[in-house]
Amino acid sequence: MKRLVIMIAATVLGGLIAADADACTGISLTAKDGSRVVARTVEWAATPMQCGYVVAPRGHEHQSYTPDGLNGLKYKGVYGYVGIYTEYEPFVVEGVNETGLSAGLFFFPNYGEYAPYDKASSAKTICDMQFVSWVLSQFSSIDQLKDAMKTIDLVTLSSKIGAVHWRITEPNGRMVVLEVVNGVPNFYENTLGVLTNAPGFKWHLTNLNNYINIEPGTEPDKTIKSGIVLKSLGHGSGNLGLPGDFTSPSRFVRAAFFQTTSPTWSTGFETVVQAFHILNNFDIPIGSQHPMAEIPKDLPSATQFTAATDQTAMKFYYRTAWNSNIRCIDLMSIDFHRVKYQSHPLDKNQVQPVEMVKVH
Questions:
Q1: What is the pTM for the complete model shown?
Q2: How many domains is the chain built from?
Q3: Which of 238, 281, 321, 330 lies at a C-alpha separation of 20 to 30 Å from 344?
Q4: In whole angstroms, what is the distance from residue 35 CA to residue 201 CA?
């Protein structure tokens, strides 16, 4: 069992990091009617992932893995939730529970480090890849989570794979980032609402100062020496210098710019659509991360899915690399007391549907 668990972890986590695909990008928006929306991308450039969504009811029995096997913390769900997993069903990376609390996992390689696993404490140990499920099933607020962190040990399944950090958001708009460095959990209030990957969250905030000159709009004509008039070669010249590559620092800056310059839409649904439009800018075309000889087959994009949650209307939206149509799970239509635990693939068929237009 131990070898099986580590192989699963190495496939899910190690494959992501080895493929330089730990490129998750998260944003948040607020509508005029007060609706709160959090949205993010998930990348893996190595192979097509088998992703699905789970519906977990209240009272569902969970148990975490440890490096020894399936002998970690056992707990029953206080709240029901909906979430998306990657490759392995217990590894939920993004979701929302019936109280509107949202949680998401983002890779944090080379900078995060958990405390060593203590076999004697296996009964209170949670694997990092199952942390989102624990949060969604147990809590309705960030403060509750902070108190409960004192009662658990958070570990990785193998020291050969990198760490992750998390974004937790209440429906009232409060968001925190949780990073474990040198074995110590650190919570950071995230009033900006943006998250990517390494380095740490506080470093990304400092790095924004390097882009103080970036602004929306087009620069006016400027006359320089000898009467030469400089004109913008296109709209948006105030954005010159905005980084366009897919590294984590550049994506953080770009996400912060697009989010803070976005218009405020009237409703939650309009805001969800805007979030998808913003995250279009973070789709990673396949091949951009690989030498030509190493481009994976049957993978149209490294951005394998994008998800958005309207925490006010309690609706969970997603689209995938194979089907760019937006799909929605309405949590208000689910009776989490009676519903059975279930999981389903994000795409029954990994084929982009095309609506034919008839011309008469």
A1: 0.93
A2: 1
A3: 281
A4: 25
